[in-house]
TrEMBL record:
Pathway of action: Amine and polyamine biosynthesis; putrescine biosynthesis via L-ornithine pathway; putrescine from L-ornithine: step 1/1
Active site per the UniProt annotation: 324
UniProt-listed Pfam families: Orn_Arg_deC_N
EC numbers for this chain: 4.1.1.17
Record keywords, A-Z: Lyase, Pyridoxal phosphate
Protein's name according to its UniProt entry: ornithine decarboxylase
One record GO biological process: putrescine biosynthetic process from arginine, via ornithine
Length: 376
């Protein structure tokens, strides 16, 4: 939460919820990852925040891009990234999109199943492919352990099949879970990947790349390790499980690249209670789950909030959004401690909202416009 963002908000009246991104912070985050893992290529996860200004900045710094759709590929190219700096990292792709991506020059594709591999063989002949394996995600706020990936033994079979189909069996990927606070989470996954490399080598397939995925966290209400600590732990694990034959590596930071670069300003629309005897306050904001704060689902992400009454007496409040949907409640299981003196019309600053807010914002649900984003 930077002074530049606060100054921007002070200069303008509040008309709607607005996300402001400080590009200087994005730059610092990129350079931090580059220093922490100097031998890894950085593929920014476009889905975290695809603002053109962010993509252009990262492209100018030399970043590569992890994309999940044909549209994200086009965004990365429009920002100045050449095709060899783009990975089509979604394991669930429309076959015609694979064909179009290949026509655009993309040659790096993810998969985790027989059917997806066959699509790639038909539409992206000779392309580099990497197979995603399952990872338990223990220690992450958002484990990604079921929808994506396959068992390691299946991955070995698939990579053998990739070679038979004329594709280039390039490597293996995994994801340790989003907002992963455990720097050692990569160790067990790399142990498994090392075994896959050695078994396939004995069968005549020489893998060269490990995609270390994302998972690098941003600071919300609790401290998290910095990029340097993750880099040290990952480099140590690579050395332990690959010895002197280190593979190429790539990382896919998203949240860790842009999360702490953004702040949303929101207005209190209503403060109420549910009965005359009720002591629990409900505070309704002009932004909620459908306006971009979808990661409050199950209260997994707890955003830091600044108020004009900070320092005064506080009590827990249930926070909710403005839509006519009963699911649009942000914090109810653990009410949020906010000043008792808050009033309707007060403006709040919701920090660390640079990632997965503008992209999760709905398109005019209840007539509310998508989250406005400004980059400074």
């Amino acid at each position: 939460m930077t002074d530049r963002i606060r100054d921007y908000f002070k200069a303008l009246p509040h008309e709607e919820p607005t996300l402001v991104i400080d590009l200087d912070v994005v730059r610092q985050n990129y350079l931090g990852f580059a220093r922490a893992l100097p031998d890894s290529r950085i593929f920014y996860a476009v889905k975290a925040n695809p603002a053109p200004e962010i993509l252009s900045l990262l492209a100018s710094l030399g970043s590569c891009f992890d994309t999940a759709s044909l549209q994200e590929i086009r965004m990365a190219q429009a920002a100045g990234a050449s095709a060899e700096r783009i990975s089509f990292g979604n394991t669930i792709k429309r076959e015609s999109d694979i064909a179009r991506a290949y026509q655009l020059g993309v040659r790096l594709f993810a998969f985790d199943s027989d059917a997806e591999l066959e699509k790639l063989a038909r539409q992206a002949p000779g392309a580099k492919v990497f197979c995603r394996i399952l990872c338990d995600g223990e220690g992450a706020e958002w484990p990604l352990s079921r929808k994506f990936g396959c068992e390691p033994r299946m991955a070995e079979r698939l990579m053998l099949r990739a070679a038979e189909l004329g594709l280039d069996p390039y490597g293996v990927s995994f994801h340790v879970g989003s907002q992963q606070a455990n720097t050692m989470a990569w160790d067990a996954a790399l142990a498994t990947v090392g075994q896959i490399f050695r078994r396939l080598e004995r069968l005549g397939v020489n893998l060269r790349m490990v995609n270390l995925g994302g998972g690098f966290p941003t600071r919300y209400t609790r401290d998290v390790p910095n990029a340097e600590r993750y880099g040290f732990a990952i480099r140590d694990a690579l050395s332990r499980h690959f010895g002197n034959r280190l593979p190429e590596t790539i990382i896919e930071p998203g949240r860790g690249m842009v999360g702490n670069a953004g702040m949303i300003r929101s207005e209190i629309l209503l403060i109420s209670r549910k009965s005359d005897a009720e002591t629990q306050r409900w505070i309704y904001l002009d932004i909620g789950k459908f306006g971009g704060l979808a990661e409050t689902m199950d209260e997994a992400i707890r955003y830091p909030i600044e108020t004009p009454c900070d320092g005064a007496e506080t009590e827990g409040a249930i926070l909710a959004g403005p839509t006519c949907d009963s699911a649009d409640v942000l914090y109810e299981k653990r009410p949020y401690a906010l000043p008792v003196s808050l009033e309707i019309g007060d403006l709040l600053l919701i920090g660390a909202t640079g990632a997965y807010t503008s992209t999760y914002s709905s398109v005019a649900f209840n007539g509310f416009q998508p989250l406005r984003t400004v980059c400074i």
